[in-house]
Amino acid sequence: MHVVHPPELSDAAGDDDExxxxxRTYQTWKGSNVFFLGGRFxxxxxxxxxxxxxxxxxxxxxxxCAFVARKxxxxxxxxxxxxxLVVVIVWTFYVIILLLMTSGxxxxxxxxxxxxPQPETTDRGIEVESGLTLTPQLRLPxxxxxxxxxxxxxxxxxxxxxxxxxxxxxxxxxxxxxxERFDHHCPWVGQCIGRRNYRFFFMFxxxxxxxxxxxFSFCWVYxxxxxxxxxxxxxxxxxxxxxxIVLIIYTFLSVWFVGGLTIFHLYLISTNxxxxxxFRYRYxxxxxxxxxGIFGNFKEVFWTSIPPSKNNFRALxxxxxxxxxxxxxxxxxxxxIEKIPSDVEIGSVKPIWKxxxxxxxxxxxxxxxxxxxxxxxxxLQSEVASxxxxxxxxxxNRGGSSGSLEVPIK
Length: 410
Fold this sequence. Notes:
Blueprint: H1 9-17, E1 22-24, E2 34-36, E3 41-43, H2 48-72, H3 80-103, E4 121-122, E5 138-140, E6 143-148, E7 151-158, E8 163-164, E9 170-172, E10 177-179, E11 184-186, E12 191-193, H4 198-230, H5 234-239, H6 242-271, H7 275-280, H8 294-302, E13 316-318, E14 326-328, E15 331-333, E16 338-339, E17 367-368, H9 380-388, E18 393-395, E19 404-407
Parallel strand pairs: 5-16, 6-19
Antiparallel strand pairs: 1-13, 2-3, 4-5, 6-7, 7-8, 7-17, 9-10, 11-12, 14-15, 18-19
Helix pairs in contact: 2-3, 2-4, 2-6, 3-4, 4-6
C-alpha cells in the first residue's frame, strides 16, 4: 500500500516564507518622504531644514529673553514687564507648532496607481504587402481636458504616479509625489505646500513676521530707556546692549523675508492663485478660472474644512511583488503601452523662482483655449469632484479625436 506522509516541518516553514510580507503603508512608500512615530508624521526628504528653522527661531528669542525682556521686567509697573516675557515665550511656541503642523502632515498627496489606466485609443492595424495586418499598438493619451468656468484646463498624465493629475495638481520633483493644489516645495519647512497644509503655512509665515516685529520693537524700547536713564545718545545706549544690536539687525533682515512672503501670499489668496500658477501661467494676462472673488477666495483658504488625507500611512499592506516581465525580441518589457512625447507647454513663461515652485517640468492644470488629445480611462470625475467639491458632467466625444469634461465652479 502506498502511504502519503504528512509534510515535514521544514516544508511548512518554506511555505510560510513564500507568503507575502505584511508591512505598514509608510514602510512601502515609493515617495522620498521621511516618516516618524510609525507613520504618524510625514516630512519631506529635507527634514533637516525643519531643525534649522526651529534653531533660527528659538535662539534669537532665548537671547531676547535673557538680555532684553528680563531687564524690562522691573521697568514697567503692574507686572507689564513680566507680560513682555510671557508673550514672547507663548508666541514662540505657537510659531513652532504651526511650523510642525505645516511640515509634519500630508500636504495632499494623491496615492499612486499600481498600474497605468486602460488606454482607450489604439493605432489601426497596419497592412503589409502579404495581406497580413499587424496587431494594433495601445496608446496612452498624454492629456485630458476639463472645463472650469467655461475655460479649458489641461490635465496631464503623470508617468511616475501612473494617473491623470486633477486640476491644480502637480508632481513635486523633491518629494516625488503628486500633490493637490500644489503651491511650492518650501525648503524652510522641508515639505510640499499643498491643499492640506497651505493654511498652516500662511499662519506660520505671518506669525513669524509678527514675532520679528515684536522682538525688534522691544529691543528699541530697551535702548531708549537706557538713553533716558543715563542721559546719553541712542547710539551710546545701543553700545551698552550689544544683544539688542544683534537682534535688531537679525529681525530687520528676517522681517523682509517672512514679511515679504506674507504680503505675497495675501495677494495669492485674494486672487485664488498658487505660487506655481503665478509664475507659470500669469493670470494677469488671462482669466483665472478659479477666482471666486476676494471674500470667496479667503473663505476657501481659512473657513472651509480641510479634507482628510487620501493616504492611511499606518494601514497594513502586502509588499508588492516584483513586476513580471516578458521577453520580446531579446529584450524585457513590462507593458505594451507606448508613451507618446508630450508637447503641452503653455507659452514661453517659465518659473523664475525655482526654489519656490519646483515641479517635474510638466504642465499641470493650466488654462488653455484649444482642444487636445482624447481622454484615457482614469476616473477623472470623482477626483475633480472631490477637489472642487462640486459635480460636473462628462462630455467626452468618444467618436472624435478630442474630448472635454465640464466643471462648473460656482
